[in-house]
Amino acid sequence: MRLPVLFLLMTVMIDAMGIGLIVPVMPALIIEVTGEDLSRAALWGGVLSGVFAVMQFLCAPLLGSLSDRYGRRPVLLIALFFMAVDYVVMALAGAIWLLVVGRIIAGITAATQSAAAACMADLSSADKRAQGFGLISAAFGVGFIIGPMLGGLLGELGTRAPFWAAAILAALNLILGLLVLRETVTEETRRAFDWRRANPFGALRALSRLPGLSRGVSTYFLYQLAFAVYPTIWAYFGQARFGWDAGMIGLSLGVFGISIAISQALVIRPLLTHCGERGTALVGLGCNAVAFTAIAFIPSGWIVLALTPIAALGGVFTPAMQGLLSQQVGPKRQGELQGALSSITSVAMVLAPLILPTVFAAFTRPGAALYFPGAPFLVSLALTCAAFLLFLRLQRR
């Protein structure tokens, strides 16, 4: 593997690890700095998660457009520098407002996934871009696996230890980038910066004007909103349906993360070879539909765990769709496109906690007319079917 590609994968992995690394210690840390009880700490945790998602939504197109104008290298390296500094600030934070500021900065720096994906597109030929995006998704999956496990282990050393570890990882990756990453934006592909396309709403409006792209973007959004059922609902669903404890839920998430990484790193290449990008996207949507239906109705936790590879294989839709969309925008707008897609994912991650837990509560509260913990997965199934119909219209076009 080329060193620049390794750097990009490490950047995405550290982004994912940074999210999961601090989750195990966040309740104790909030209680420590506020003196509040666990219920109030949970409310502050919601605030911290919200500002992170909102900043990622707002800044992903900005950083993507900046990388189109000034280059991928400075955007990625500057973001890594501030990421390392941010984790140091959070490790030393003694007040809740510092944690809020820290999560705001973390949301901005995590938006570098758009620049990393654009850089991967620059380094790949047109027919290999979907494979490169698959590696990006695999790196995120690996970070999703390692982050919570490492955070729980380091949390035994204190609530601040995971933040110091994240700061060290970001600093080491910054050094690697300084040494190996060359600039991939050339004078021929450089694009003038435009504020109208550097904000999430302007970027989506600009992309929607390209023929066929609005349907593709809408399909991508529906998929992301459906797939968000796993991080949003899984822990509550596992306890309500199967009586799983925290250890079993953590194990199931680890199996899911490993399956995601394997499917993105090893399975997507032969799929793309034999099915093409459109066929691979349809495979992803089909696997999602099967998984959501099965999870909603199957009463056995072990059978659901056995179906984890099928659920994870649904993730091949993302790189396949990224590859299809990247071919429609040309080399000068790769950063803008990836920034818009990152913002779409952020919107899905903001909306999912508003929609899916409400459905879950309606079907699991005491006195509910129908006790059905799997109801949110049927909502995701409906979203997946809508994405499938949109994709078929896009394919015909």
What does this protein structure show overall?
The protein is 82% helix and 0% strand. It folds into two domains: 1-180, Up-down Bundle (Growth Hormone, Chain: A); 199-397, MFS general substrate transporter like domains (Growth Hormone, Chain: A), CATH 1.20.1250.20. The protein has 397 residues and is mostly helical. The protein is built from 18 helices and no strands. It is globular, with a radius of gyration of 20 Å. α3 (38-70) packs antiparallel against α17 (334-364), α6 runs antiparallel to α7 (129-155) and α16 (317-329) packs antiparallel against α17.
Any idea of the CATH topology of the largest domain?
A: Growth Hormone, Chain: A
Mean pLDDT: 78
Number of strands: 0
Under the CATH scheme, which class of the largest domain?
Mainly Alpha
Specify the CATH architecture of the largest domain. Answer: Up-down Bundle
Report the radius of gyration as a whole number of Å: 20 Å
Chart the SSEs and their pairings.
Blueprint (H helix, E strand, L loop, with lengths): L2 H19 L4 H9 L3 H33 L1 H21 L3 H15 L2 H11 L5 H27 L5 H20 L14 H4 L1 H9 L4 H15 L1 H14 L3 H52 L3 H6 L1 H6 L3 H13 L4 H31 L10 H22 L1
Helix pairs in contact: 1-6, 1-7, 1-8, 2-3, 3-4, 3-5, 3-6, 3-17, 4-5, 4-8, 6-7, 6-17, 7-13, 7-16, 10-17, 11-16, 11-17, 11-18, 12-13, 12-17, 13-16, 13-18, 16-17
Question: What characteristics describe this protein?
Answer:
Growth Hormone, Chain: A, 397 residues, 0% strand, mainly alpha
